[in-house]
Amino acid sequence: MPETLFLFDRPEAVSAWSAIDDRVMGGVSHSTLRFDPAGHAVFGGQVSPDNNGGFASVRASVSPPSARDIEAIELVVRGDGRRYKLNLRIDRGFDGVNYQAAFAPPAGRWIRQALALADFLPTWRGRAVPDAPALRGATIEQVGLMIADRQFGGFELAIQGIWARRE
Fold this sequence. Notes:
The chain has one domain: Sandwich (Jelly Rolls), CATH 2.60.120.260. Helices cover 0% and strands 53% of the residues. The strands form two sheets. It has a seven-stranded antiparallel β-sheet with strand order 2-5-12-7-8-10-11, with no helix packed on it. Strands 1, 3, 4, 6, 9 and 13 form a six-stranded antiparallel β-sheet that branches. The termini are close together.
């Protein structure tokens, strides 16, 4: 049985999430994770190349942290035709290694998206980190959603929940 990390079925479910956009380096992109009265969350906003920007993201701490025997992360999402990244962190720091896996849910249709831990690549500020600690076997402390890779303009990813699937 998957462990629920986040279930976006009520307004307070999005309150722990914070935006970390390219504004931290002078860009002008912006994003939010907001509750939709239809019973899910929406990661939405605008990605702009202005001032060398180009990414938008939100993240939250997992409480309690998810234990070490995770095989995959599952999301129920409805896309907009764009490619997104799920970010996992094994610490509670602001800046450091992100383990990222990309996914591109179809526009306008809900799907269950499974991302195997083996598919997450360690990065720091968009660059590969080949000597990073292994994600498999680590404790997941933070989860985030991101859009980047020159996908400029408005975006909207609907999400019902995020689960950890055990071995």
